[in-house]
Prior knowledge:
CATH class of the largest domain: Mainly Alpha
Shape: elongated
Distance between the termini: 69 Å
CATH architecture of the largest domain: Up-down Bundle
Number of helices: 21
Helix content: 55-70%
Strand order of the largest sheet: 6-7-8-3-9-10
CATH superfamily of the largest domain: ABC transporter type 1, transmembrane domain
Amino acid sequence: MKEFWKLIKRLVRPYMGSLFGSIGMNMLSAIFNIFSFALMIPILQMIFGIDQMHYEFIPWDNPEVGIKDKLTENLYYYVSILIGDFGPSKALLLLGLFLGLMTALKCACYFGSAAVMIPLRTGIVRDLRIMVYNKLMSLPLGFFSQEKKGDIVARMSGDVGQVEFSITSSLDMLIKNPILILFYFGTLIFISWEMTLFTILVVPLMAWGMSAVAKNLKRESMEAQVKFGQIMSQLDETLGGLRVIKAFIAEKKMMDRFGKTVNEQRDATNRVALRQSAAHPVSEFLGTLMIMLVLWFGGTLILSAHAPFDAPTFIFYMVILYSVLQPLKDFSRATYNIPTGLASMERVDKILGAESTIVDKENALEITDFKESIEIKDLTFRYPDGYKDVLKDINIRIPKGSTVAIVGQSGSGKSTLVDLIPRFYDVTGGSISVDGTDVRDLTVRSLRSLIGNVNQEAILFNDTIFNNIAFGVDGATREQVIEAAKIANAHDFIMEKEEGYDSYIGDRGCKLSGGQRQRISIARAILKNPPILILDEATSALDTEAERLVQEALDRLTSSRTTIAIAHRLSTIKNADEICVMNEGVIVERGRHEELIALNGYYKKLIDMQKL
Length: 612
């Protein structure tokens, strides 16, 4: 429970008004409930005619009479006056109406306590989802290379949903039930401390039974949520790899794999559900056992020669005792739900507690323009979870306005190198500087504002063409977007669509061809108008015609910018000012196209391989 209260302290702070409102309403509800049940005593006395005594009013300031005797005697006194003035039948009707009024007030307070908690419950879930999403936005790319995307989605949906179900739904019970239990037990002690002492001695039996059922519930809930994350990961992999699955006739293999994971998740969920389902019958049985023991003990007291109370008071005591049982059951049910929510919250906290290594230094500098050069000096890099350097001893100087191409076989470190310039990762050794200032001394936002990216895979969003092109520029006008699209050779195919720039392109641009997606991506970079441009094999996945159109757009885009281009098709970088040839994380050759051909080395070998 200590973990639970820490969690509540983190999440409930903005909603203290709702919390205190619920506490106040629940206290009033308990008070009205006790008074409504207290009216049963005189009603029963009248119905069965078992009380013909004469009562006198006892002054409230009389020190010789206890508060309990004052309340009882004066209540009976007012009821006897009521009977004398209106007769037994009308007095009974008035008492019944008063009972109805107390019950209505109790129900109104009960509703009010639930109503004021709704903004708190829904607000906590909203805040949690926003916190997780904002944290994901702040984490470096290295975090996502170590986590499965499907598992992250599962934490955002399944785990946050479980927190909503088990913790926020339990919060109301944890506020209401202790108040009811406190007021009801106070009333029981007021009526008879002997019987209440006996009752309290029986309660540990219930607590022991509940703890036995709830044992290991958090661990089993964690296992179920991990399996759910695996299901989401497999689903994500399947949707992303359907073409390969069908091409290799692997449908049966994937179905068996998915079915195995789903069955494991079902078994884990069954174990949790069985323990949770045991809560009600176990608490019902233990509650009935407690009532039976108290009935025996109370009946023995009444049948004795010196009974501490009469039969109607004993009935009132039993009604209040039975009223305690439901809050106790709800409280125990909350203790079952909380471990499952804490298990889910633990998984969510792995995201919220993840450290972002790409952060601004204190007093980091703002850079507003690119004036001289980018310099990569003695650079080495190793991934956070890696065991060896993937880049070693890299030295490159990129003057403003020049084009530097990076070529090499797959896995040679080309993409990793260009990812270090906008600080998607931080270098392990050496430095990258822009205009003489280390990129780690610049604010991330100002550094990335100078850089535009066009990737091999055009990353688009399920939105309109206009919004995709204007994605990185606040307040872009339609004229600016159209101009960027024209430069990117995209305007013509956009206008052929029924809704033009307002056409939706589907999930990841699935309604567009590869060349069209790439030209939209280039238009987005053109609109941003960055002084530094990174091209990561932007034409490698296109057919000849699409490549021609995209290459024309790229030529316009790079004509007035400093460009770092990763090239798969070497014919596209013949005019680069410098070509750096990489192999296994090291630059093995460098120079212009003609110089490298003359060397008859590694670059020439790559050229010859593409001619085959």
